[in-house]
């Protein structure tokens, strides 16, 4: 009887660009098996070797591109057991050593991808109409690997190592203020008019045909965060970041010529309350107890897959503009109220911000915007 195929997913998910992935082999298991061996303490929706629980795998003969026995009906589901190993319900076995062209080619996905997969052969694998959930709590990291080969001779004992890569971009908004005259309290963030759907060519490792480019992603919460001189995340919780489609060179909201953003330029907006520190009196919104409004800053986004982007907003010298589309029900512009209108300055100078880019690991660089 042929012995079983053994594989391991060294899903290093080194928060991951190719240059930072690491591969770790595993001990023998029965049937095709995968094992994730690197743990990361991060948000649940970011796929790590700790929380990765299911993998969908396809195998082809490397020589002629035909699907290998056991995978002819499509992807095979592997589930993680109590030991951290991934096993299919029915084991699949290696071709024999004496079988001509015994090498196999493997493709694997985490079992949370949206969109429509096309898996024709090892050179034609794509996912069409990948859509990002507008409910941020439901957004999930998507990982994959393709073109990994193995043979009975080389991999029967040690297994075939699969290094999974992140397909999306991770976005975090942080904020700070050194202003002693005004106190800023924050209850949410918004990113407006970015791409919400695209196609992914798995073999070419490339996103394309981005559309639905007017998507708005909101994060709100009940307990306000008071800003200080130290930058802190203003997401819903530490590490609770957005998982969005990679995209390039968006056009920022033109605040001078398009105050209410009819052209749907991109921007960041913060749900905040501004009061005078001395007496806690309202500044924005101008009236009401515990009132909040959306303050915006134009921003052009260029996001690459597998990268984490941290935008740090500095409210020390200004609070930006009233959100050009939905400033919130507490904002009452003149003549009925005392607040500025959509697109108008709230107070002082524009919000300053920087963006830090990292390949989801400690190495990175800061870029001033």
The rounded Rg comes to: 25 Å
Instruction: Round the mean pLDDT to the nearest integer and report it.
Output: 83
User: In total, how many beta strands?
Assistant: 25
Structural class: mainly beta
Q: Secondary-structure element sequence?
A: EEEEEEEEEHEEEEEEEEEEEEEEEE
Percent helix, as a range, is: under 10%
What percent of residues are in strands? 35-45%
Domains (count):
2
Number of helices: 1
Instruction: Please give the alpha-carbon distance between the first and last residues.
Output: 63 Å
Biggest β-sheet: count, sense, barrel?
Answer: 7 strands, antiparallel
Strand order of the largest sheet: 2-5-4-3-6-9-11
Question: Spans with pLDDT under 50 lasting ≥5 residues?
Answer: 1-6, 10-30, 35-44, 361-369
Described by the principal axes of the CA atoms, the overall outline is elongated
């Amino acid at each position: 009887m042929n012995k079983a195929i053994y594989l391991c997913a060294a899903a290093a998910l080194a928060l991951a660009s190719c240059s930072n992935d690491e591969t770790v082999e595993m001990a023998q298991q029965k049937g095709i098996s995968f094992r994730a061996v690197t743990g990361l303490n991060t948000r649940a929706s970011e796929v790590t070797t700790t929380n990765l629980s299911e993998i969908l795998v396809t195998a082809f003969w490397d020589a002629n591109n035909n699907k290998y026995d056991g995978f002819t009906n499509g992807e095979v589901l592997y589930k993680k057991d109590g030991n951290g190993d991934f096993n299919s319900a029915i084991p699949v076995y290696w071709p024999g050593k004496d079988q001509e062209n015994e090498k196999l080619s493997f493709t694997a996905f985490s079992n949370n991808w949206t969109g429509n997969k096309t898996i024709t052969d090892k050179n034609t694998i794509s996912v069409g109409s990948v859509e990002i959930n507008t409910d941020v709590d439901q957004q999930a990291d998507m990982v994959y690997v393709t073109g990994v080969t193995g043979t009975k001779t080389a991999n029967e004992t040690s297994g075939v190592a699969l290094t999974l890569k992140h397909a999306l971009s991770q976005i975090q908004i942080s904020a700070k203020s050194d202003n002693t005259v005004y106190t800023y309290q924050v209850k949410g963030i918004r990113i407006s008019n970015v791409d919400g759907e695209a196609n992914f060519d798995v073999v070419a490792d490339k996103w394309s045909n981005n559309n639905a480019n007017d998507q708005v992603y909101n994060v709100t919460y009940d307990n306000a965060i008071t800003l200080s001189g130290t930058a802190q995340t203003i997401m819903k919780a530490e590490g609770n970041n957005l998982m969005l489609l990679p995209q390039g060179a968006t056009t920022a909201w033109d605040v001078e010529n398009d105050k209410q953003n009819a052209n749907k330029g991109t921007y960041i907006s913060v749900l905040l309350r501004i009061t005078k520190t001395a007496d806690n009196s309202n500044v924005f919104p101008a009236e009401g107890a515990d009132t909040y409004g959306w303050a915006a800053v134009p921003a052009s986004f260029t996001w690459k897959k597998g990268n984490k982007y941290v935008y740090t907003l500095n409210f020390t010298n200004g609070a930006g503009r009233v959100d050009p589309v939905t400033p919130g029900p507490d904002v009452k512009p003149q003549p009925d109220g005392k607040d500025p209108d959509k697109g108008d300055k709230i107070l002082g100078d524009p919000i300053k911000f920087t963006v830090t880019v990292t390949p989801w690991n400690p190495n990175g660089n800061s870029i001033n915007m």
